[in-house]
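User: My instructor asked us to take a sequence, write out its structure as tokens, and then describe one feature of it. I'm not sure where to start. Here is the sequence I was given:
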Amino acid sequence: MDAGDDKSYDDINVTPMVDLYLVLLLIFIIMTTAGVQGTKVDLPKGSKAPAIGGPKSKAITVNNEGKVFLDTVPVSLEELEAKLNAHKAQVPEFPVVVRGDGATQYQMVMSVLDVIGRCGITEIGLATQAPK
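Assistant: Let's start with the prediction itself. The structure tokens for your sequence are:
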């Protein structure tokens, strides 16, 4: 036997394990940010007119159960008004896009539009699907 064969291994090479964890973390980050686009709703059909929106816009979604979401956070109408007023205090001019499910009650969409009007927001868009 060689003298080198008797040597015990006191340390473990963790570099491949760290590489694996970093790849998994990267995949997790990409999948999480890809899923934060908003609550899924079945949008009604509309025209091919240019849309408003962008990184500074706020998305208000009304799903088919009548629940209201600001970006992706569920809110009541009172919380929606408070959060829009707080955001308007920081950013005076910003567009709002209302995404209403095609099967939702029209009254809930009108209530959301009423809240937006009380907040003094003038740039309002209604999200629709392009016609086929």
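For the description part of your assignment, you could build on this observation: The first strand starts at residue 58 and ends at 62. Try explaining in your own words what that tells you about the chain.
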